[in-house]
Amino acid sequence: MAGTVFLPPRHYLNEEYGIASWLLTRDHKRIALLYLAGVTFFFFIGGAFAVLIRLELATPVGDLVSDETYNKLFTMHGVTMVFFFLIPAIPSVLGNFLIPIMIGAKDLAFPKLNLASWYIYLIGGLFTTYAIVTGGLDTGWTFYTPFSTVSSTTKVIPAALGIFITGFSSILTGLNFIVTIHRMRAPGLTWFRLPLFIWSHYATSLIMVLGTPVIAITLLLVAAERVFHFGFFDPALGGDPVLFQHLFWFYSHPAVYIMILPAMGVVSELVAAFCRKPVFGYRFVAFASLAIAVLGFLVWGHHMFVAGQSVYAALIFSILSFLVAIPSAVKVFNWTATMYKGSVAWETPMLYAIGFIGLFTIGGLTGLFLAAIGLDVHVTDTYFIIAHFHYIMVGGTIMAYLGGLHYWWPKISGRLYNEWLAKFSALVIFLGFNLTFFPQFVLGYLGMPRRYHAYPAEFQVLNVLSSAGASILGVGYLIPMAYLMWSLRYGHVAGSNPWGAVGLEWNTTSPPPTENFAETPVVTWDAYDYHAPAASQT
Amino acid sequence: MAGRVDALYFFLIGIAVFFSLLIAGLIVFYAVKYRRRAPAEIGADIHGSLLLEIGWSGIPLLITMVIFVWGASVFFAMARPPDDALNIYVVGKQWMWKFQHLDGQREIDELHVPLGRPVKLTMTSEDVIHDFFVPAFRVKADVLPGRYTTVWFEPTVPGRYHLFCAEYCGTKHSGMIGQVVVMEPSEYQTWLSGGAPEGSLASAGAKLFADLACNTCHRPDAQGRGPVLEGLFGKSVLLQNGETVVVDEAYVRESILTPSAKITSGFQPIMPTFQGLVTEEQLLELVEYIKSLQGLPQVPPR
User: Fold this and answer.
1) Contact check, Cβ <8 Å, A71/B171
2) What is the largest CA-CA distance in chain A?
3) How many CA atoms lie within 13 A of B239 on its CB side?
4) Would you write out chain A's pLDDT as a tens digit for each of its 538 residues?
5) Which residues of B44-66 are buried (b: 16+ CB within 10 A; e: fewer)?
6) Cβ–Cβ of B27/A354 closer than 8 Å?
7) Residue A193: how many CB atoms within 10 A of its CB?
8) B189 and B103, same structural domain?
9) A451: nearest CA in chain B?
10) B22 found inside a domain
11) Which of A66, A70, A347, B49 is the most buried (most CB within 10 A)?
């Protein structure tokens, strides 16, 4: 860190210039930045919907927008955030950028397929954007039948088609990651020397490849029933409405793990780097990712405890849901133990990691409330659920995503951001988040149903608190947008390893050259081994 | 029931607070105690501990199994209505709740029930999925088209309680609300006698049974082309394919709408479908009429 550092003369950003050099690139790092632009765009679209939702809910009567518009707002908030931000965010941006570098490879196994994934994502996004701007969608992001196939008069087909198409980008990305991790590790980089970020992305990729086809087929069935009146889900046509829910959650529950597993991978990296210490219980954390991926496929029925499934099915899904909580708990305990006798640096990424652990813990523990069937009956479909999954998705995934973005930003851009502003905005986001979503736990237990445009007056105080929190949270998200952009031009040059961390990504220049490493590294040390002299080039 | 759900809830809050404070406390404590004091400082070379891993997998596993059993026992109680429960029928549609009492009273968006007696609702939907949710009673159940679901509760305090539709059902979903009015038994009797001009639900069903000419085939004297319905409800019958089926609300409904689905052994599949000819509410009247045909065969009133 000492002395003046300069940007490397040649790196992936100045290798070529011009629009075509980006739109036709096969460099995983440039594709990661294309994804960064895409997911950031959808994040702010989805965020704008959230702002309108919270504004409407500041008063008990429906006054700002009509009920029809309100229903579209929460639907489009969910669709854009889940399918176009949360699912691709960490894998396609950070995973894309880092997986080849972390394993000492020049690129992903299939660079052209990687570019194709981005275009598929973009085309899917265009379909859904078309649905949004030409009238919107009001089915809820869950597309429950027979409402979505018979009753809704909104743009179900283009929106579903957009999600269908985007699914293929997910499948191809997962396939690319699996093959890359199997085949392209540097000499000496055995499975148990891999960073935990790689393990969690491996587990995520399995879900992407195995789960996504199911949602694709399900949405096709919805389209077929809507257009051709084939009776899959509508009882009037001889179908079964609950069948849809089984198919939908068979993907959409594992999809929660597509969102949270990469976030867990990021947090493992952050905690290790800012404690300068190996992650406690490395193998347990690694296998916990796989356990979550496998068990995650067996718990979908916990979304349907009040949907009229049999009592015995509910029992099985309940006990399996409790089991999936164990590997998550193991991870939390191991991260905490990693801090013991560490060298803990209070840098911005670490603040996000700590925020993640705290919020994810609350999100996970409230998941136990929902897995307990007798209690789930009361709180499901209320604001308790909303609070719970926002603690996982926003408090978990987005905190980790921002933490990862701050940690690897110097590697991606070659420059440092304003540390003071970054810490300030991390704090604003943490406080704003809790003020937004904590009151919703209480609201839910008191009985306020989700997806309500107007509500009884006794719920107003808690709703006002939530809306106030949302405005703080919104500002918190805009600040990093500003200083990260600013740093691209004016930030201090970072140097190859500004954090003094170990890991192959810190053994190359910032930004890295297109081929990542001048020569393929040979790995003789374990991940996070701060005591192996070869590991660190600080 | 509300008390049992709340007890589990507060137990879980205790668990959640304990573990949240444990984790948060440790993180803050370590972050302060082990904060980096020199730029080149590195952490201790600690890799893990099998004993700790076993401990923090095993203890949460035990705790979650306790919660599982507790939650399941509450759920079982919710799933089994007492035998002496008062039956009320519910039909949900975009965007209202329709209630049919056995004595014939009909209500919309308001449900009157007596204090201190279990109430069992048998529910269906005319269109999309709805959900019957009364937060004060801690009960919630989806109301599905083409199917009967049930929910039960026992009100313990007189008053008016929120009723919400908890499954998103379209434009006026947040307007699909109502009230459950819990009355002292004597007031409830007064309310019941207040008005049911068309007679009881079963008698409405009997009239419909005759109007639709069901009684030409389903005759009490076993001379008809269809099975005798008297004393049938709740029994199990042998089907043509060798299976048996219990005659419950769902089976009666299916036999009216899709008669060929499950043919009783010894009968021809000649009954026409009544799909589109009877509403969900009329189906419930017919179900209630067939339920009322217990004991000795009797001639249906004309």
Assistant:
1) yes
2) 75
3) 15
4) 445 788 999 999 999 999 999 999 999 999 999 999 999 999 999 999 999 999 999 999 999 999 999 999 999 999 999 999 999 999 999 999 999 999 999 999 999 999 999 999 999 999 999 999 999 999 999 999 999 999 999 999 999 999 999 999 999 999 999 999 999 999 999 999 999 999 999 999 999 999 999 999 999 999 999 999 999 999 988 899 999 999 999 999 999 999 999 999 999 999 999 999 999 999 999 999 999 999 999 999 999 999 988 899 999 999 999 999 999 999 999 999 999 999 999 999 999 999 999 999 999 999 999 999 999 999 999 999 999 999 999 999 999 999 999 999 999 999 999 999 999 999 999 999 999 999 999 999 999 999 999 999 999 999 999 999 999 999 999 999 999 999 999 999 999 999 999 999 999 999 999 999 999 999 999 999 998 765 444 4
5) eeeebeeeebeebbeebeebbee
6) yes
7) 19
8) yes
9) B168
10) no
11) A70
Which residues constitute the domain of residue B9? 1-14+50-80
Q: Does B26 touch chain A (CB under 8 A)?
A: yes
Q: Which residues of A382-395 are buried (b: 16+ CB within 10 A; e: fewer)?
A: bbbbbbbbbbbbbb
Which residues are CB-contacts of A255 (< 8 A; sequence separation ≥ 6)?
Answer: A82, A87, A207, A211, A215
On whether residue B111 sits in a domain, the answer given is yes
- Burial string for A16-38 (b: 16+ CB within 10 Å, else e) reads eeeeeeeeebebbbbbbbbbbeb
Does B24 reside within a domain? no
- Identify whether B109 is part of a domain: yes
Please give the pLDDT value at position A1.
Answer: 44
| CATH number of the domain bearing residue B279 | 1.10.760.10
Chain A residues lying within 8 Å of B4, measured CB to CB: 374
**If we measure between CA atoms, which residue out of A91, A96, A118 comes closest to residue A108?**
A96
Quick check: B52 and A306 CB within 8 A? Answer: no
Distance to chain B for A177, nearest Cα, Å: 28
Q: Are residues B129 and B74 in the same domain?
A: no
Mutate to test the interface with B, among A271, A277, A306 (most CBs of B within 10 A): A306
Residues of B in contact with A357 (CB under 8 A): 23, 27
pLDDT at A2: 46
Task: Please name each of the domains of chain A with its CATH number.
Answer: 24-507 (1.20.210.10)
Q: How far apart are CA A538 and CA A503, in angstroms?
A: 11
Say whether B27 and A336 touch across the interface (CB within 8 A): yes
Q: How far apart are CA A440 and CA A33, in angstroms?
A: 35
Residues of A in contact with B135 (CB under 8 A): 378, 382, 446-447
Check residue A336 and give its pLDDT: 97
What is the distance between the alpha carbons of residues A342 and A350, in angstroms, rounded to a whole number?
13
Can you give the pLDDT at residue B225?
Answer: 87
pLDDT band at B296 (very low <50, low <70, confident <90, very high): low
Residue B29's CB: how many other CB atoms inside 10 A?
13
Same domain, B102 and B186: yes
Q: How far is CA A319 from CA A251, A308, A362, A401, B57, in A?
A: 19, 18, 20, 31, 15
Tokens standing for A538? 């600080």
> Is the Cβ of B264 closer than 8 Å to some Cβ of chain A?
no
Does residue A118 have a cis bond before it (omega within 30 degrees)? no
Number of structural domains in chain B: 3
Q: For residue B115, what is the domain's CATH number? A: 2.60.40.420
pTM of the model: 0.93
pLDDT at A386: 97
User: In this structure, are B61 and B95 located in the same domain?
Assistant: no
DSSP string computed for A65-95: S-HHHHHHHHHHHHHIIIIIIIHHIIIIIII
Cα–Cα distance for residue pair A468/A16, rounded to 1 Å: 46
Contact B286, B256 (CB under 8 A): yes
Chain B, 137 to 166: residues with Cβ < 8 Å from chain A are: 138-142, 144-147, 149, 162, 164-166
Question: In chain A, which among 259-288 make CB contacts under 8 A with chain B?
Answer: 275-278, 280-284
